């Protein structure tokens, strides 16, 4: 499901000042989120997923972060907006659920007051109507005793309950864009499914575009229209969920998919299940990115001499589906459009390790730097 763009991000870059020197944490992200569309952002820890969305909403302190590029929310550039306009836009324009719920809840105000204030800041609802709506929202996100919860302080709730309160606040103004950063990771699967349904309803009713940041590829397969794979602050692959999960073209994506448990694998005689395959090695620190392909130090198929000196641009790697291009930043698939029988497609079978079945000719993967 895609429509008019809700968000268009162009060449987003974030440099952080750190004690170890400048850290290039986001390095040229370009993507769009259509009306009613869900874009999943995946990538291992430290790849810049959270920083990239905090930058969009002006939530990185200017003394530590330099943000450049463009981010048009319904045609208006978030990166050049005045702070007062940004405050107006957060809520009905863009709602965000953070990884840590305590960062967005005020510990000295009751849950009810926080939801009511959020509702009344962007509408002419009376206090009584807003309070009724707040209780309704808490019920919708599965909080037991929503009326009672309105009068409680955040510290009186469990972590999972607090997370549901934050989700209720983010949904309360039916935002045009919802950014969910590991929003349901801490919740049990039943509540997670309930929240996902709630968001799907919001999308159907209001055309909300969703950026869903997660480590859970099962959720990605279930809810996303398209997937953006981040590594070292870059998008290394994007496309429709079917293209990326069924025909991954970048060796890193193949590694990520290889690290899913193979549910069909035989269980050992004592009931033990096989280890998860992981991508060997560690991502590079953002203060010391490699000069060539950012994945070079860990890439099991690095054969092209350009790998060491040039960052491959995102190039179209297959026919694409759903009217969207399938792109990847690699030349190891140059000249071969991945298809169901190709090595890239084979790697999505979950059975192999990183780049299983991919043509080699290079050294094995290395951990760390060069
Ligand atoms: N305030 C900060 N000061 C310095 N470096 C930071 C700061 N916040 C994040 N970073 C660095 O920026 C990089 C990207 O961090 P980010 O939190 O965006 O990763 P992530 O992809 O969201 O990871 P995770 O999956 O663990 O949430 C990391 O190397 C992190 O150490
Ligand atoms: S083959 Fe080269 S360009 Fe492709 S991911 Fe590996 S190191 Fe990067
Ligand atoms: Mg994060």
TrEMBL record:
Location relative to the cell: Cell membrane
Compositional bias (Low complexity): 335-363
GO biological process, one term: peptide transport
Domain ABC transporter positions: 7-257
Domain of life: Bacteria
UniProt keyword list: ATP-binding, Cell membrane, Membrane, Nucleotide-binding, Transport
Pfam families tied to this protein: ABC_tran, oligo_HPY
UniProt entry tagged with the keyword ATP-binding: yes
Listed transmembrane segments: none
Membrane topology label: Peripheral membrane protein
Region called Disordered, residue ranges: 333-370
GO-annotated cellular components: plasma membrane
CDD domains reported in the protein's UniProt record: ABC_NikE_OppD_transporters (cd03257)
GO MF annotations, alphabetized: ATP binding; ATP hydrolysis activity
Family statement drawn from the similarity comment of this UniProt entry: Belongs to the ABC transporter superfamily.
Protein name (database record): Peptide/nickel transport system ATP-binding protein
Species assigned in the record: Blastococcus tunisiensis
Lineage of origin: Bacteria, Bacillati, Actinomycetota, Actinomycetes, Geodermatophilales
């Amino acid at each position: 499901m895609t429509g008019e763009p809700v968000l268009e991000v162009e060449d987003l870059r974030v440099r952080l000042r750190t004690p170890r020197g400048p850290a290039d944490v986001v390095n040229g992200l370009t993507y769009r989120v259509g009306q009613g569309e869900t874009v999943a952002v995946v990538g291992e820890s430290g790849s810049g997923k959270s920083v990239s969305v905090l930058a969009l909403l002006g939530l990185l302190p200017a003394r530590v972060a330099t943000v450049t590029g463009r981010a048009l929310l319904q045609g208006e550039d978030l990166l050049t907006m005045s702070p007062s306009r940004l405050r107006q836009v957060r809520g009905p324009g863009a709602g965000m659920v953070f990884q840590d719920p305590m960062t967005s809840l005020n510990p000295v105000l009751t849950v009810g007051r926080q939801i009511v204030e959020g509702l009344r800041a962007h509408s002419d609802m009376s206090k009584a109507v807003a309070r009724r709506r707040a209780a309704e929202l808490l019920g919708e996100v599965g909080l037991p005793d929503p009326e009672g919860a309105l009068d409680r302080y955040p510290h009186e709730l469990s972590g999972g309950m607090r997370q549901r309160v934050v989700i209720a606040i983010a949904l309360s103004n039916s935002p045009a864009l919802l950014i969910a950063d590991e929003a349901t990771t801490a919740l049990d699967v039943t509540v997670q499914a309930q929240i996902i349904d709630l968001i799907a309803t919001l999308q159907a009713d209001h055309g909300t575009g969703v950026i869903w940041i997660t480590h859970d590829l099962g959720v990605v397969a279930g809810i996303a229209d398209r997937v953006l794979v981040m590594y070292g602050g870059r998008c290394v692959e994007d496309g429709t969920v079917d293209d990326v999960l069924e025909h991954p073209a970048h060796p890193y994506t193949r590694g990520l998919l290889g690290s899913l448990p193979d549910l069909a694998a035989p269980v050992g005689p004592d009931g033990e299940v096989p280890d998860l395959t992981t991508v060997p090695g560690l991502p590079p620190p953002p203060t010391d990115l490699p000069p060539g392909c950012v994945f070079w130090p860990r890439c099991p198929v690095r054969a092209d001499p350009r790998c060491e000196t040039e960052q491959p641009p995102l190039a179209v790697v297959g026919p694409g589906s759903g009217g969207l291009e399938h792109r990847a930043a690699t030349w190891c698939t140059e000249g071969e459009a991945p298809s169901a029988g190709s090595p890239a497609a084979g790697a999505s079978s979950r059975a192999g390790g990183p780049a299983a079945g991919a043509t080699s000719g290079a050294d094995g993967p290395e951990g760390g730097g060069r």
